[in-house]
């Protein structure tokens, strides 16, 4: 993700405050313009066989049950009959408007008293299965224009049959109040959709959705939400498909399932639910796929059954998501507070609508449509959450760049220091080897001139030679250490007879008579022969120095299927326990070695060379108390050179 993308994603908090103000203002304005609720009584018709002639008889009056605060029976295939009474008109010849919600009811029939008809009632039909042009007044809900009796109250009946949730909110209006309310209502819905579309555009602009899955699913969630609320509010039937009511009705079913699926997947990502949380991961994945599988079921005529299960799962999803968001807050994840706010908005806004649709809460019109306010609060809070999360990522990205820059500077400084060290070591080796050779030549000449030297002189000659050998060994170890530490070192790998290579090392030792060499004939592997012989030489040198004088040292080479193992055993005192963990580091030597010469680099060099070949070295204990160093060289080393 580029810094430009992240910078362009930063929200305008002035805009956010304006949107929140509009969100708070929306229900207040709407409630202020609400019409007069109509008191209802309901009779349930389980198999849909009742007729207006039968249920309107005085003998059936006691079967109607009074309804308060709106009616909701949830998702059911039962037919419901309503009875209500409108008082005498207070204005001469002034009509009243009876408005029924929600807009997605399939078949709604109003029975208006009419003494001139044989059955005493005029039937007025409405519902989203009829073309929009068939509505008495062009409005997203269903409006019936009535002229009540001027002298007495009249009893009306209404029949409701729908495959969606059986919810009914019935209000009474004067024409002027209804016109004013409808104008304000459409304006508020325009504001609602404008906010959602603006959030979509804000999230599309930085192109974060191209690289970030959570953004892709956030946009899908917003898109399906818009499609769903357009249909649920009746605008698809009014503006998009006015002549195709059945297709508009199917739009509601399909979009409901799509918004459930996209919301579950987005929630999974934004709540950081992975397979490390197996139970939650399975639940969210199920919630992502179940609604999609429910689409063909709904289109085959079983929407009522499918959505009943889906809405029940939405309640569980909302509660689980809120719990998960609170755990993110406790762990102080970036944007977690806004995620929790979004989930809480979904719980206390959208959940109210869901419980109404399920028939648990009454079908009050504003309670039914409260999910839209909850949806707006949810998407705004999620926008802020994603913004906070990616601002944190931007800061971490900047910090990573700074760390990389510092590391690059440190690497350059280290490379420069190593180059200077290599130059110094080369110069020191050159400057020391010349006088050492002169000293060694002079000492050798003195020894030859004084053939009958006394024992004391002979000892002095020996000490001089041992000093020269000690300095030479130290220089060789330092130069070898410097070589194997060079990052540009490339091992010259080639097929090698390890048996012969080990024999050459043993033959070059002064104490070769103490080495017991045991190896099969012609054991071969691909190694850098010079580095391999340094390993064997260092291990034998250590074993000979730290073992009692005259004690044997065993060198063995053993093959396995994928590697060759070089093993050196001695009869020394062993390695102190406190030294074992640091044994292969630079300049590590025991504190009780007396005057035994050494630089503390031998085992360090052994491990570096072993690892250069993709192998390893380890210390093992011997039964007789000494040490055993075992070096493993794989048959297919990782350091093959291009010319091997």
Automatic annotation (TrEMBL):
Lipid metabolism recorded as keyword: no
Database matches in SMART domains: HATPase_c, HisKA
Catalysed reactions, semicolon-separated: ATP + protein L-histidine = ADP + protein N-phospho-L-histidine
Gene3D superfamilies to which the protein is assigned, alphabetical: 1.10.287.130, 2.60.40.2380, Histidine kinase-like ATPase, C-terminal domain
Enzyme class: transferase
Domain (Histidine kinase) ranges: 427-637
Single annotated GO MF: phosphorelay sensor kinase activity
Transmembrane segments: 186-205, 217-239, 251-270, 282-303, 309-326, 338-360, 366-386
EC number: 2.7.13.3
Family annotation (InterPro entries): 7TMR_DISM_rcpt_extracell_dom1 (IPR011623), 7TMR_DISM_rcpt_extracell_dom2 (IPR011622), HATPase_C_sf (IPR036890), HATPase_dom (IPR003594), His_kinase_dom (IPR005467), HisK_dim/P_dom (IPR003661), HisK_dim/P_sf (IPR036097), Sensor_HK_Regulatory (IPR050736)
Top-rank taxon, per record: Bacteria
PROSITE patterns tied to this protein: HIS_KIN
Keyword Transit peptide: no
Entry keywords, A to Z: Kinase, Membrane, Phosphoprotein, Transferase, Transmembrane, Transmembrane helix, Two-component regulatory system
Protein name in the entry: histidine kinase
Species: Parazoarcus communis
